[in-house]
Amino acid sequence: MKLAFAHNYDAAGFTLIELLLALAIAAVVLAAINTVLFGALHLRAETTAVAEQSLPVDRAVETIKNDLVCIRPPSTNGYIGPMGTDATAVGMTKPLLLELYTSSARISDDVPWGDVQKIDYWLQNPTNPAAGATGMDLIRGVTRNLLASTPESPEPHRLLGNVQNLRFSYFDGTNWNDTWSVTLSNVPAAIKVFLTFTKPSDGTPANPPFQFVVPVITQLSTNL
């Protein structure tokens, strides 16, 4: 008796050409993913650099706005002096751009001072310039003790670097003026601020110039 064996072969394998084609497609896909990934990382690095460069500017602008919004007019008892561009601060060798009295200070349990403080703005050459730094430093001088027996020098705080120019303009209700004298007994109705920057030497782009107007609203209170 003869036994017949039926062999059924399922040809499910890949040919060499199919394997090479699959490898080529995988290589193209991996190259595209690599390009997209490195492009995203580069874009993220650029975005982070721009944010880090603009963040100090935003903080400085908010500080200046807060000082101008909270400006205080001169008082009759001399506790709050007049604001002006021709003021002279104790111990200062640099010319002041503006001196004003403002209630922008934070009251804290750690210090005995109130919310009113004297603020001086000026520009000076960097004392410890960082790599790529150009231009001047914007300094904000703070005096909290307004009742000292002898005038105190303002405590300097560096707001910004790479500053080309900081300019204030004052609206008296009719015209804009480039200066405001301490001999005046009032404060302007609005103050315009111009802030420009120099280009860093490391090749990064310069910050865009800033210009903003702050209306000055003062209210005098009396004890009834």
Protein model, in words:
The chain has 224 residues and is α+β, with helices and mostly antiparallel strands. It has one domain. It is built from one helix and seven strands, in the order H-E-E-E-E-E-E-E. Strands 1, 2, 3, 4, 5, 6 and 7 form a seven-stranded antiparallel sheet that branches. The relative contact order is 0.14. The mean pLDDT is 82.
Quick tags:
seven-stranded antiparallel sheet
Short recap of the structure:
It is built from one helix and seven strands.
Distance between the termini: 131 Å
**Share of helix among residues?**
10-25%
What is the count of distinct domains?
1
Q: What Rg is obtained from the alpha carbons, in whole angstroms?
A: 32 Å
Please tally the β strands and state the result. Answer: 7
Q: What is the chain-wise order of helices and strands? A: HEEEEEEE
Overall pLDDT, averaged?
Answer: 82
Shape type: elongated
Structural class: alpha+beta
Number of helices: 1
Beta-strand fraction estimate:
15-25%
